[in-house]
């Protein structure tokens, strides 16, 4: 099955959802903050990982590799911040 993962990450919490390609949400999860400017890159990526794992479990899946990953993240307004965060998220291995 093809999956879509959405991430909403901010200074107080991170929410993630796993959906099918029709947009039906299969599972949702939450974790701590993911603004790397306030908690650091490692902690921010850890929160993203935890939220996606929770959403994956809520969807009844053991793992998810998605076709599309969309992340709205606080603290990545500058190109230099995006250049730091993007490879860190890619290393999570969530997308093809």
Can you describe this structure in just a few lines?
Helices cover 35% and strands 28% of the residues.
Outline the fold blueprint.
Elements lengths: L2 E7 L4 E7 L4 E7 L4 H4 L1 H18 L9 E6 L5 H12 L6
Parallel strand pairs: 1-4
Antiparallel strand pairs: 1-2, 2-3
Helix pairs in contact: 2-3
Describe this structure in words.
By secondary structure, this protein is of the alpha+beta class. The chain has a single domain, classed as Nucleotidyltransferase, domain 5. Helix content is 35%, strand content 28%. The protein has helices at 36-39, 41-58, 79-90, and strands at residues 3-9, 14-20, 25-31, 68-73. Helix 2 (41-58) crosses helix 3 (79-90). The longest helix has 18 residues, at 41-58. The chain starts with a strand and ends in a 6-residue tail after the last helix.
Structural features:
single chain; 35% helix; Nucleotidyltransferase, domain 5; 28% strand; 96 residues; four-stranded mixed sheet; alpha+beta; 4 strands
Summed up, the helix count is 3
Radius of gyration: 12 Å
Average pLDDT, rounded to a whole number, is 94
Q: Strand order within the widest sheet?
A: 3-2-1-4
What gap, in angstroms, lies between the N and C termini? 13 Å
CATH third-level topology: Nucleotidyltransferase, domain 5
Classified by CATH, the class is Alpha Beta
Report the strand count. 4
Q: In terms of per-residue confidence, which ranges show pLDDT below 50 for 5 or more consecutive residues?
A: none
Shape: globular
Write out the CATH superfamily name: ATPase, nucleotide binding domain
Helix percentage range: 25-40%
